Amino acid sequence: MDFLFDNPLATMNGIYFLIFYGFVILFTIIILAIVKSQIDKSDKLNLPPISSNIDPYEIAYLRGGTNEMARSVVFGLMQKGFIEIKNEAKTSEIKRIDPKMSVSGLPQIEQLALNWIGASREAKEVFSADGLTKQLESYGQTYQAQLENAQMLTDSEMRSSFSPMKWTAFLVIFGLGCYKLLAAIANGNFNVIFLVIFCIIGLIITASVSKFSRLTKLGKTNLERLQLAFDNLKYQAQAPYIPNGTYQGRPQTAFAGVDPLLLSVGVFGSAILAGTVYDSYNQAFQRAQNQSVASGSSCGSGCGSCSSSSSSSSCSSGDGGGSSCGGGCGGCGGGCS
Amino acid sequence: MKDEKKSVNQKSETKIGIGFREQFRADLFLHQDKIDFLEITSDHYLDAKPQKFEELKLLKEHFPLIPHSLELSLGSAEGIDENYLEKIAELVDFVQPEWFSDHLCFTKSGGVKIGHLAPVPYTREAIKVFVKNISQVKSKIKTPLILENITYLVQFPSSEMSESEFIKTILEETDCGLLLDVTNLYINSRNFGFDWRKFLDELPLERVVQIHFVGSHQSGKRLIDAHANKTESEIWQVFAEVCRRCNVKGAVLERDEKFPPFSEILDELDEARRLSETKIAI
């Protein structure tokens, strides 16, 4: 028992122990980061070619999970003239324009969303517990499986293989801190505030480093590559929809298998619609996000607004989603664990 | 083109491509089925910033690429800029194209870039300069080099031969292919009043590897090669005639300004494909 609290480590001078402890924390975190990086081997894989018939909803899912996919689907319906968005003083309403309009040409995902909208819905309902995101869950699961299979999203296997290392790191930092705390108290030293601070900071950093981003290295690279490939699309696709706007010397894009503006929303988020005739959509979802955050419901509806260039894109607002949020922001190459 | 490792003069169908410009980037990926290859301006990727290099990698992964450089200055009596040649060699090595191209002109004099594709007098002396410089390029880069005819606003009184004879001699002495810019040919024929068909008769057409085409632009009394207009019917005539007479491997639409909706670009590519496939004179 004497040796337990009477050894070089237990009796080490406070300052020297803090230095030693700091090194241990740093070393542990570096090892943890290296191991985490090694677990994600997706960067060794070849990127898939960009298809001419690219699915904007899959890219939206890759970028930000079910929330982003739902936002893109709503935009797709709006652009095709099935719905409109009315922004009132406090609420934003998604309204079916003409219930008699044939839906036969719509993809199933859009038909499902249209059925959910019915005559009208409040924008914030899109992200509620039984909202559109819930309705589109099966599509989300399919995309999730496809993207996991392509090693673009981190999967449970990756997380579970990292788990022992993560808990070991926590144990080392927490255990050493606790041991020294007990030893100090046993030796009559009660000036332990810095030790506690070091321990807490160490644990927070460890927790942060332990988080897997939603996207794997391959997923991030693929998203960045898509954003590079379609970088100019966000300007060209929006040009015809800018009121009294000019093309500003940019060529208007040609319609391919997918509408360029919808693809832009999928790849970059709805921020690209700012200043276009679809601004009401942007405002509605911004408001839905604020209301959602204010009420603390769900995982937040916002984010998805990658507004900058491919190389430096970022989310305009965080989704705040944890792993239980079923997707969340994911952002432009990063996001929820 | 990427998959067919054929020699320059082997018979093959004409691939239809476009000169890559950033403004087209998204549309290129959305219409990959309509574009067989891209011609990249080599100079944009020498000392490239990381994002530009990423773009090059992205393009290479999706399209066969043909580098087209502007500053080899093959007609400069002072010789080739070794540093520039080294960079072109690195680019060609990275891209692994079936051929690469530059112009029958000079763009540097006394080490100074003149910012223009300048013609040379059609003399034996000028041919010697081209032959020497091209030999230097070929010793450095094993990929076939093809040479493009340019437009000019003056004809040198000191010329000892016709343009067609000049081109023919260089091609034969250097064993290079020809990048026949049908727009340049048409513009020169209009500005200097000669018959482009007769000009074609005098060229070694078996050496034509690639075509450039785009509309001409009227500037005062002259036509210029502004790369800013839709290909007009007269140039389609030249295009069709060249396709009829030669085994052209690739035809590239060069558009640099006044970009139209991409659907119009696709229409031009479709027309080029139609003419190259039917091989009928119009």
Describe, in plain words, how this protein is organized in 3D.
The complex is a heterodimer of chains A (about 325) and B (about 280). With about 325 residues, chain A is mainly α. Chain A has two domains: about 1-40 and about 155-210; about 55-150 and about 215-325, no CATH class. Chain A has helices at about 1-5, 15-40, 55-80, 110-115, 130-135, 135-150, 155-185, 195-210, 215-230, 235-240, 260-270, 280-295, and strands spanning about 85, 90-95, 120. In chain A, strands 1-2-3 form a three-stranded antiparallel beta sheet, with helices on one face. In chain A, about 40% of the residues are buried. With about 280 residues, chain B is of the alpha/beta class. Chain B has one domain: TIM Barrel. Helix content of chain B is about 40%, strand content about 20%. Chain B is globular. The model of chain B is unreliable at about 1-10 (pLDDT under 50). The interface between A and B is medium-sized, with 27 and 24 residues.
Instruction: Give the C-alpha Rg of chain A.
Output: 25 Å
Number of domains of chain A: 2
How are strands sequenced across the largest beta sheet of chain A? 1-2-3
Distance between the termini of chain A: 43 Å
Integer average pLDDT of chain B: 92
Number of strands of chain B: 12
Largest sheet of chain B: 8 strands, parallel
Into which percent range does the helicity of residues of chain B fall? 25-40%
Main beta sheet of chain A: strand number and arrangement?
3 strands, antiparallel
CATH superfamily of chain B: Divalent-metal-dependent TIM barrel enzymes
Largest interface: A-B, 27 and 24 residues
Order of helices and strands of chain B: EHEHEHEEEHEHEHHEEEHEH
The side-by-side strand order for the widest beta sheet of chain B comes to 3-2-1-12-9-8-7-4
- Give the termini separation of chain B: 27 Å
